[in-house]
Specification:
The structure is a single chain. The protein is an alpha+beta fold. It has a domain of 126 residues: NADH Oxidase (3-Layer(aba) Sandwich), CATH 3.40.109. 40% of the residues lie in helices and 15% in strands. The chain is built from seven helices and four strands; from the N terminus they run H-H-E-H-H-E-H-E-H-E-H. A four-stranded antiparallel beta sheet has the order 1-2-4-3, with helices on both faces. It is globular and about 60 Å long. The two termini are 27 Å apart. The model has no long low-confidence stretch (mean pLDDT 97). It binds flavin mononucleotide. The site of flavin mononucleotide has 10 residues, from strand 3.
Amino acid sequence: MNNNQAIINFLTIRRSVTAKIMAPGSVDRKHLQKILEVGLRVPDHGALKPWRLVVIAGDARKRFDETIILTAFQKDNATITEEVKGIESSRMQRADVVIAVISKPIQHKNIQQWEMHLSAGAVCTTLLYAAQSYGYAAQWLTEWYAYNNKVLRALGGVPGEDRIAGFIFIGEKIKNPVERTRPNPELIVSYF
Ligand SMILES: Cc1cc2nc3c(=O)[nH]c(=O)nc-3n(C[C@H](O)[C@H](O)[C@H](O)COP(=O)(O)O)c2cc1C
């Protein structure tokens, strides 16, 4: 049997580091390429590849924050405080790289769109785990803007068809996160 104990060890202790407590740092672009490559290597019924990734890094983070996120927020909130403006105009800049994962289902005679959305979730998880396995701080976030049609359109998605599965924030770990509660398998798993 092929023994991948190192992977089991990683999965046993890995933890997300929230965007709130990460520093942007610097993600090695070779690591990023590998994260993107393995992140797309997921279960996908019919090999339909029903997802798109948009990388938001470098200067694009500030541009995306100010011209897409803040603008969308202001459209729905006529008056905002300076504090809120500060938060909404710096969302992406909490990380060095943010990967937006768009679930892009297609019509298929046998395969349900639900499965395509699940596959997009698998892309998110795999990107997250790949980034964490390099030692980066990483978190899967949706926040409010994953559900905003202007944001979806700016990422190439079509409202009513496509959905944002998540934003994978990747930065530098400057603080170790405390463990969160973890499920007790005995309460979740049963044997038929
Ligand atoms: C689809 C999805 C969306 C999420 N969106 C948010 C979010 O908007 N804000 C947040 O604080 N955590 C969000 N989380 C939770 C965190 O990313 C993460 O699950 C949590 O911090 C613990 O993860 P860990 O098991 O990797 O340590 C989301 C998780 C998922 C699966």
